[in-house]
Structures are given as structure tokens and as C-alpha cells.
């Protein structure tokens, strides 16, 4: 066995995927933690005496994030109050199990935990959404709803920052995806280590420069408890392609991950590119680049029995809504093909059958009982 390249005298047990250094366990811990401390201080991620909600899914990234933030906070006296925020998407056999891991982390790290569910926020679980829309495109709902749910949670908890476990691989993948899609507006902001969600609570990514492989190694050698099962629903197909491409390139040269991030950081978007103007959603009040935010459009589609409403371009949304209102006008009364005697709608059209079939109870976002959702 080779000796540790720091010349500490101990035997090396691993080769760092990011740098190629052969290190003993303790020197790896030190190097990995110091890099995150350097990232936090260089980017001035947190101001002292702030409260930070750690977006905790129970997976490796957010578990390592919670562990390291606690460790560095104590070691370098950042003077942060740390707590955990989890979103329960309502995915049986996946999130229910991973939330148990978060509860274990809560005890181990002695942090308070707030769990918000899609069911409470939107009236739908992901299981129900997938039953309505199928396995294609369900990641769009999950991603959009989770993003907003985390913002709502951060708001509710009155924190100063929301920290997520996005790592270097996630960011390099996103850069690749935005290049492949030609999405220059997103490309210009996807590498930012601090993003403003528009409601004044910045999102920060302390693991931005950490390789996924090293996060797994760190969790393994530190014996951290985390949940490692993939989501039971279909993975985001497009991101999947970018991921495979990145992993193939990483095998040839591990520095591609950092190179892609640095390229993304250095790209200057031409002034002629149309950048979205941020405004507030006229329904829920959250920041949006459209009059009605994506979460509200998706929710509207679900509640109207048009689950594909928010999938794709916004022009499609308009067309589908127009078609839907035309259909509603052409419906005939007192003809419920559902033969449900208790149905009040008793309306049908050729494609939709009785609209009572698509009727769902849901909480409107603008009527959320935010005051009741306290810690
Ligand atoms: N259900 C959730 N509740 C709270 N935070 C979440 C949730 N899902 C994802 N996040 C946050 O978003 C980050 C990126 O999420 P992503 O879905 O890419 O998971 P991941 O890369 O597998 O991360 P992790 O290993 O932490 O699950 C996570 O590290 C976490 O901070």
C-alpha cells in the first residue's frame, strides 16, 4: 500500500477522483472539509448570526451537507443556526423511507426538522400525479413543485438562507443540458453558487465544487446514515443523457467536471439574448417569469383533468386552455356517463366524459394555511 501523499506517515487508502492524490482517511477528510470551508468563505455564502435551512432529502448529498455544515460551523464559529427542511413528495416506497433517514439525521445532528408535503401544499401526492399523467413528464411536476415547496418552507421558517446539496456533477450536467437545449438564459445563471429565488431568501450550494464520487467516499468513511435508493418513478430522461455523457467523459479525464463548470462560469451571454423578466405570479404571488407561474399552471392542469397543460412551451398552455374552454361550452347537461347519481356536474363531452372524473379536492396556493404550518 502506498503512503499518504501528504507525507503524514499513514498508509493511503484512497485515490481522490478530483485531484488524483492518494490519501489516508484523515487527510482525505481534512482536504474535503477544507475545500468546502474555502468555498463558503470565498463566496461569502453566509453572514454570521444567520439561520440556514438545509434542504434535506435523506440522500448522500444533503446528508453530507448537513454533517459538514454542522462540523464547520462549530470548528470555524460561523455562528449559524442550522435546521433541516424536507419536502415529502408523496412517493410510496421512496420518500417515505428517505424521510425516516432524515429523522435519524435530525437526532444525530441535533437540528430541528420541518417536513412539508405536496399533499398539504398542492392537494396532490406524486403517486396521484403519476396516476393522472403517467410516467413520462412526471419529473417536471416534481421538480417545479419541489422548488416552490422549498421556497415556501424557507419562508415559513423565516430563515436567511436555503442550502441545497447540489454537487459539481449536478452543476456540470446542468451546464451540458442548457448548452444542448440552447437555453442561454438558464446557462448564464445555472453555475451561480448563490441564487435569489426572488423572495429575498438566497439559495446557496456549498457543495458546488465537490465531486459526487468524493461525497460518496466521504459519507462511506464517516459512516454517515443516508438513503441511497433511486426514485421509483422514471428518471428525468434528458438529464439522464447529460449524466451518461458526463460519466463517460469523466472516465477519460476526471477534470472535465471542473472544466465544464469553469466554462459555464466564464460564458458571457450575448446582450441580444432575451432574458426573462421576473414578476410575481398573479395567483400565488411567487416569483415567476410568466403571468402565472409554472407551479400554478401545472396545478390548474391537474385540477381540470388536463395534466399535460404545463408540459412544454407556454404557447401550448394557452392553446390547451382555449380548447378546454371550447369543450366546456359544448358540453351537454344532465348526461353524466359516469352514471354517478351523486355527481353534481352531470356534464359530459366526447373526450372527457363527465368532468366529475377529473375533480379533485385541493388547497389553492393562495389559500394556504401558512399560519397553521408552523414548526
Ligand atoms: N424532498 C426533498 N426535500 C428537501 N430537499 C430536497 C428534496 N429533494 C431534493 N432536495 C434538495 O435538492 C438537492 C438536489 O436534489 P437532487 O434531486 O438532485 O438529489 P440528489 O443529487 O440525489 O441529492 P441527495 O443525495 O441529497 O438526495 C438535494 O441535495 C437536497 O438539498
Number of strands: 13
As a percent range, the share of helical residues equals 40-55%
- Contiguous runs where pLDDT drops below 50 for at least 5 residues: 331-375
Tally of helical runs: 13
Structural class: alpha/beta
- CATH superfamily label of the domain at 47-266: HUPs
Q: If you consult CATH, what is the topology of the domain at 47-266?
A: Rossmann fold
What is the percentage of strand-forming residues? 5-15%
Largest sheet: 6 strands, mixed
Helix and strand string, N-terminal first? EEHEHEHEHHHEHHEEHHHEEHHEEE
Any idea what the CATH architecture of the domain at 47-266 is?
3-Layer(aba) Sandwich
Shape descriptor reads globular
Average pLDDT across residues?
84
**Radius of gyration, CA atoms, in whole angstroms:** 23 Å
Query: How are strands sequenced across the largest beta sheet?
Result: 5-4-3-6-8-7
| CATH class label of the domain at 47-266 | Alpha Beta
Amino acid at each position: 500500500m502506498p503512503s499518504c501523499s501528504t507525507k503524514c506517515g499513514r498508509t493511503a487508502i484512497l485515490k481522490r477522483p478530483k485531484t488524483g492524490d492518494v490519501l489516508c482517511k484523515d487527510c482525505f477528510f481534512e482536504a474535503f472539509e477544507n475545500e468546502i470551508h474555502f468555498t463558503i468563505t470565498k463566496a461569502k455564502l453566509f453572514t454570521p448570526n444567520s439561520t440556514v435551512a438545509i434542504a434535506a432529502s435523506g440522500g448522500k448529498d444533503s446528508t453530507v451537507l448537513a454533517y459538514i455544515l454542522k462540523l464547520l460551523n462549530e470548528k470555524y464559529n460561523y455562528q449559524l443556526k442550522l435546521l433541516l427542511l424536507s419536502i415529502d413528495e408523496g412517493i410510496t416506497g421512496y420518500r417515505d423511507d428517505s424521510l425516516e433517514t432524515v429523522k435519524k439525521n435530525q437526532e444525530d445532528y441535533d437540528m430541528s426538522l420541518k417536513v412539508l408535503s405536496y399533499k398539504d401544499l398542492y392537494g396532490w401526492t406524486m403517486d396521484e400525479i403519476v396516476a393522472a399523467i403517467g410516467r413520462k413528464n412526471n419529473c417536471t411536476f416534481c421538480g417545479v413543485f419541489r422548488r416552490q415547496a422549498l421556497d415556501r418552507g424557507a419562508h415559513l421558517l423565516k430563515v436567511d438562507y436555503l442550502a441545497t446539496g447540489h454537487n459539481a456533477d449536478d452543476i456540470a450536467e446542468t451546464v451540458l443540458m442548457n448548452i444542448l437545449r440552447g437555453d442561454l438564459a438558464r446557462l448564464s445563471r445555472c453555475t451561480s453558487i448563490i441564487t435569489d429565488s426572488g423572495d429575498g431568501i438566497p439559495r446557496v450550494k456549498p457543495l458546488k465544487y465537490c465531486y459526487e464520487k468524493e461525497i460518496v467516499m466521504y459519507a462511506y468513511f464517516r459512516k454517515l446514515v443516508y438513503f441511497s435508493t433511486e426514485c421509483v418513478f422514471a428518471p428525468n430522461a434528458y438529464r439522464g443523457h447529460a449524466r451518461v455523457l458526463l460519466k463517460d467523459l469523466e472516465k477519460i479525464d476526471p477534470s472535465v467536471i471542473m472544466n465544464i463548470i469553469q466554462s459555464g462560469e466564464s460564458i458571457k451571454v450575448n446582450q441580444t439574448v432575451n432574458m426573462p423578466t421576473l414578476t410575481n405570479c398573479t395567483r400565488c404571488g411567487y416569483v415567476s417569469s410568466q403571468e402565472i407561474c409554472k407551479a400554478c399552471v401545472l396545478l390548474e392542469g391537474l385540477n381540470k383533468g388536463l395534466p399535460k397543460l404545463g408540459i412544454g412551451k407556454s404557447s401550448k398552455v394557452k392553446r390547451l386552455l382555449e380548447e378546454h374552454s371550447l369543450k366546456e361550452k359544448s358540453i351537454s347537461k344532465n348526461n353524466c356517463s359516469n352514471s354517478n347519481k351523486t355527481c353534481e356536474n352531470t356534464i359530459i363531452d366526447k373526450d372527457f366524459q363527465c368532468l366529475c372524473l377529473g375533480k379533485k379536492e385541493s388547497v389553492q396556493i393562495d389559500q394556504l394555511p401558512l399560519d397553521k404550518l408552523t414548526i
